[in-house]
């Protein structure tokens, strides 16, 4: 749309995404130089509306950014008091004792939090320092400079025609230019994906890997509530069908976060991650906790699981990738928010030095060096083999091998395995439907388990229906001609929001239908589609889920 005339605004640093990484960068920039002009653009209707995380927070990143966060009223109030690790079978469980766990797996000193609320608080801290934050501003395009560098973004396009064209009521948005542009969109963001491809930032790095995390908030019987208790489970119901597990975190007000993660490198295309989550809640150990309670919220998002060896180069001409745009989750700890914050701090420090030296639009090599060698690298390198070992050898063997590897690295500083490769990406890992059994899932009972569309209503998701579909098919024929006969069209199952369906009517050919209004912006379709035919892009600003305190 180079022929579209837009107004432009100039900043020192433009930040896309008001998550922990982007907000940390904004705060750090203003702490280091109060005169810098910094803007944060957030596609959600408000800061926190699109934030979904477990979350048990390691505060090391926040300690570095705002050491007096307690005195400043951060919504971080529930310290972890008890850690449980369970391996589930169909009817029972085995508790894994805490003593053989590597020290890094200990959650004491961490806090159970709503990262949506933490981000809302961080946004307030940023605004007090003079950061401009614009929610409801989806960034749909990049702006490039004369030398091919990223110069800015296009934000705030509204009212496109259904076919994507500009009509009489279209607001063309604005260009926001910066000396540097930070991309902190979260997992598999559309701008980050474009940047990684344009500058070949994945070259020499392992394949990116992902999981799908689904989460419900429950209010439970006060007698069953144990504030500060953290429970992680593995095993049933996934078994050998897929890697993954659950988390159950007891926060305040008799609420628990109940979450379920499925690694997206599963082979059987008949697997239905959402229904695995719903089935999980019927395990006797889980059911007795939730019975008599009520679910009050639901959401889902992809999780970066590739770790250290999968991180793309984080600096590019004109800016940097932050947080989950790089993939900084420590998989065995199920934590990434601390690394997201540390990445934002590091990027800000590099940009402050560059701007002070009169630079702009170049690569922040200092940031890339810090990510690969500093605190984030130290956190991720020692766990880099856990996920690929799990994928290659299964749950039981990986518990032993992964635990051994983490212990050796903690004590001796090296891995006996070196660096284990991930192999195929998650789309390539999908097998043919004819080679795997169909999985029979029990019908949700409406008390502990729920159908997808009912649960999506608890995410407060909304999209203006007259806009173009933000889920783009490279080839509209592939879902029916290829994915349906070869893979039983897994989009019907891997999407946790019921966006995709194959409609078969008497006497008519099947149709592939995209109900984009349901989309909770998890990006699973962009990752898992076996034909890599779906590209997730941003809808107009403010659309999508409206998470209260995920």
TrEMBL record:
Top-level taxon in the UniProt lineage: Bacteria
Enzyme category, top tier: oxidoreductase
Catalytic activity: a ubiquinone + reduced [electron-transfer flavoprotein] = a ubiquinol + oxidized [electron-transfer flavoprotein] + H(+)
Molecular functions (GO terms): 4 iron, 4 sulfur cluster binding; electron-transferring-flavoprotein dehydrogenase activity; metal ion binding
Cofactor binding remark: Binds 1 [4Fe-4S] cluster.
Keywords in alphabetical order: 4Fe-4S, Electron transport, FAD, Flavoprotein, Iron, Iron-sulfur, Metal-binding, Oxidoreductase, Transport, Ubiquinone
Cofactor dependency: FAD; [4Fe-4S] cluster
4Fe-4S ferredoxin-type domain span: 510-539
EC number assigned by the record: 1.5.5.1
Pfam families: ETFQO_UQ-bd, Fer4_ETF_QO, NAD_binding_8
Function: Accepts electrons from ETF and reduces ubiquinone.
Protein name: Electron transfer flavoprotein-ubiquinone oxidoreductase
């Amino acid at each position: 749309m180079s022929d579209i005339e837009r107004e432009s605004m100039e900043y020192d640093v433009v930040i896309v995404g008001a998550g922990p990484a982007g907000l940390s960068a904004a705060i750090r920039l203003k702490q280091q130089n109060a005169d810098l002009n910094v803007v944060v653009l957030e596609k959600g209707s408000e800061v926190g509306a699109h934030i979904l995380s477990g979350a048990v927070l390691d505060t090391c990143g926040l300690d570095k950014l705002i050491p007096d966060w307690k005195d400043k009223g951060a919504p971080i109030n529930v310290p972890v008091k008890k850690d449980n690790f369970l391996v589930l079978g169909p009817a029972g469980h085995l508790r894994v004792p805490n003593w053989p766990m590597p020290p890094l797996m200990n959650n004491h000193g961490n806090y159970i939090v709503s990262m949506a609320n933490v981000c809302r608080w961080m946004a307030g801290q940023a605004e007090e320092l003079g950061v401009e934050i614009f929610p409801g501003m989806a960034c749909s395009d990049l702006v490039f400079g004369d030398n091919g560098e990223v110069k800015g973004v296009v934000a705030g396009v509204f009212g496109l025609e259904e076919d994507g064209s500009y009509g009489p009521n279209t607001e063309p948005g604005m260009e926001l230019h910066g000396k540097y542009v930070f991309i902190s969109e979260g997992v598999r963001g559309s701008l980050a994906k474009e940047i990684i491809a344009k500058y070949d930032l994945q070259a020499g790095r392992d394949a990116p890997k992902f999981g799908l995390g689904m989460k419900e908030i429950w209010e439970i019987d006060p007698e069953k509530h144990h504030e500060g208790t953290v429970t992680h489970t593995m095993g049933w119901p996934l078994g050998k069908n897929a890697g993954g597990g659950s988390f159950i975190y007891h926060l305040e007000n008799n609420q628990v976060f109940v979450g379920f993660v499925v690694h997206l490198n599963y082979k059987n295309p008949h697997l239905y991650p959402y229904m695995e989550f719903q089935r999980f809640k019927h395990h006797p150990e889980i059911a007795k906790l939730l019975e008599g309670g009520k679910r009050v919220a639901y959401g889902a998002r992809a999780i970066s699981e590739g770790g250290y060896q999968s991180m793309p180069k984080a600096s590019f001409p004109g800016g940097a990738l932050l947080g989950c745009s790089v993939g900084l989750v420590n998989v065995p700890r199920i934590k990434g928010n601390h690394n997201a914050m540390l990445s934002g701090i590091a990027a800000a420090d590099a940009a402050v030095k560059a701007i002070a030296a009169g630079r702009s639009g170049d690569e922040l090599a200092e940031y890339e060096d810090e990510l690969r060698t500093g605190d984030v690298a130290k956190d991720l390198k020692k766990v880099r083999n856990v996920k690929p070992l799990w994928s290659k050898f299964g749950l039981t063997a990986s518990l032993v091998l992964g635990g051994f590897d983490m212990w050796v690295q903690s004590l001796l500083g090296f891995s006996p395995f070196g660096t284990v490769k991930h192999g195929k990406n998650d789309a390539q890992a999908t097998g043919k439907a004819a080679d795997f059994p169909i999985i029979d899932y029990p019908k949700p009972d409406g008390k502990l388990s729920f159908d997808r569309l009912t649960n999506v209503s608890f995410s407060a998701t909304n999209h203006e229906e007259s806009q173009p579909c933000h889920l783009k098919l490279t080839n509209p024929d592939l879902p029916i001609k290829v994915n349906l006969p070869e893979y039983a069209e897994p989009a019907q199952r891997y999407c946790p929001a019921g966006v995709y369906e194959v409609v078969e009517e008497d006497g008519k050919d099947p149709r592939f239908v995209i109900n984009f209004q349901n989309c909770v912006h998890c990006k699973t379709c962009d990752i898992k589609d076996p034909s890599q035919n779906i590209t997730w892009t941003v809808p107009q600003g403010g659309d999508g889920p409206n998470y209260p305190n995920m």
